[in-house]
Amino acid sequence: MxxxxxxxxxxxxxxxxxxxxxxxxxxVPPTPQGHAFGDWLGxxxxxxxxxxxxxxxxxxxxxxxxxxxxFVTNRLIIVPFSEVxxxxxxxxxxxxxxxxxxxTLLEIAIAFPxxxxxxxxxxxxxxxxxxxxxxxxxxxxxxxxxxxxxLAPLFVAWLGFGVESKVAIxxxxxxFPIVINTEVGxxxxxxxxxxxxxxxxxxxWQIFRTVSLPFAIPFIIGGMRVAFTRALVGVVVAEFFGAFxxxxxxxxxxxxxxxxxxxxxxxxLLALLGMISSIGLRAWEARLAPWREVRx
Amino acid sequence: xxxxSGPTTSPAVGAARARVPALRLNALGRVFRAPGxxxxxxxxxxxxxxxxxxxxxxxxASGSGKSTLLRIVDGLIPPSSGSVEVDGKVVTxxxxxxxxxxxxxxxxxxxxIIDNVGYGLHLxxxxxxxxxxxxxxxxxxxxLQGFExxxxxxxxxxxxxxxxxxRALAMDPTILLLDEPFAALDAQxxxxxxxxxxxxxxxxxxxxxxxxxxxDEAIYLSDRVVVLSARPGTVREVVxxxxxxxxxxxxxRTPAFLELxxxxxxxxxEEVRQGMGVxxxxxxxxxxxxxx
Lengths: 296, 292
Prior knowledge:
- The complex is a heterodimer.
- Chain A contains twelve helices and no strands.
- By secondary structure, chain A is an all-alpha fold.
- Chain A has two domains: about 50-70 and about 80-95, no CATH class; about 100-290, MetI-like fold, CATH 1.10.3720.10.
- The two termini of chain A are about 35 Å apart.
- By secondary structure, chain B is an alpha/beta fold.
- The longest helix of chain B has 23 residues, at about 255-275.
- The relative contact order of chain B is 0.19.
- Classes of the chains: A mainly alpha, B alpha/beta.
- The interface of A and B includes residues 4, 6, 12 and 192 of A.
């Protein structure tokens, strides 16, 4: 009765990493081993991804080490990577790292979820009304492009050296990318999908729940990625202007005592934090919206 | 040699229902605002009676308002004048008695095939297990077994259109509206889908409106083919297709079939040629649905 050869065109991106010849490696002599290794390294298996990551970090560390030892020998500007690692190890053993990390992470942990909730709510309100959108869009664009961190000293003067002023700054810098991405995601919802829902007599709420919101979620996660990097910048700058502890506080303190290794150690940690959040959010997006990856 | 003794296609439906028009279009008209100001008349004074269980094809040059007509019948866009009646009731919006099969499959990319098939039932807040079993029945009917757990981007265009049809059939509508559902498919897949659609139709006894730009497709499937003229779209002729059912694919090479193709082609040929030379206007019926 059914006249179909029952085979899907694509069954996911399952590739056999040991299968040679799928991707020719230019400039590499075509030994079987060379090919197999190149294919594995260029592949999408978890081990290959991890290996590539380790490789790029190893390379960066090596270049850093060589440059700091033999080319830029002014220790105020740069110290070898190994000394930065040693300084970080000292911070761990004295308990200093934990004191500062706790404060900064606490500030982010309080402010970021609030920024996400407020940002999504505002984005939803703006997307739902053309007039509100027309009135607020220029303001949003302005607020998004203004360097809000410049207001950090005001917030510190207003809310004090404690956690509150940092929470306020993080909120303010992180909320706009989420508002904008939520709005764009909701408004760019595929008109055909909305029409299909309408043909099934869907209510406005059902269209939002089953079409617009799922469509916007990858956009919102993308906004969160931008927001998190901005939050890291915001919290550090706010801590520069007055704090009892935190990454910004300790970086400023280290610079005033010319402890470059210590300073760079905390910068490396901030970079790691930003990278981990980015990778995590990307993975989350890929899990929630697998169809987007195929399109790319 | 026709096996159709009356207006209905199957004697089992019963003589009592034979003369009930399932669908009436009364002096239907639709005007769109053109992008540069002014208006475009997409449809004018379209009258049509479709009896229960009939398979009606609608063809016309591009710009003849075929898709607009179908969307008005579904209630996705309101008519500018005239009315649509389903079983004597005037259509004011989409309803469970009609279901739409879109040209682009419009499946939700974050739902699996079976969850897409059950989407309309889910919206109608059917109990979970009932939605599931009904969806599975439609999966079986449309030959999608084995693809239940796949996502739309993981299956072929033909499979997606099967799911599109299954999603509409799951609602058990009395009227099925199809808007060039096989246009995006390759020729072989399209022929298979046509045959499958006929099988499902003879099985389910739905009233079908089938819009297509392919004349042979319309004739092969339909009891009657409505030929629309372009700009404004209006009924130029209703062509009876007196070919026996069930129809084999080989019927497309018979003289009677080719004569019908020739006849309909001559009705719209001039407009198709004009349409190729004239730049098409941009008034899309979809525009009004975009601000949900």
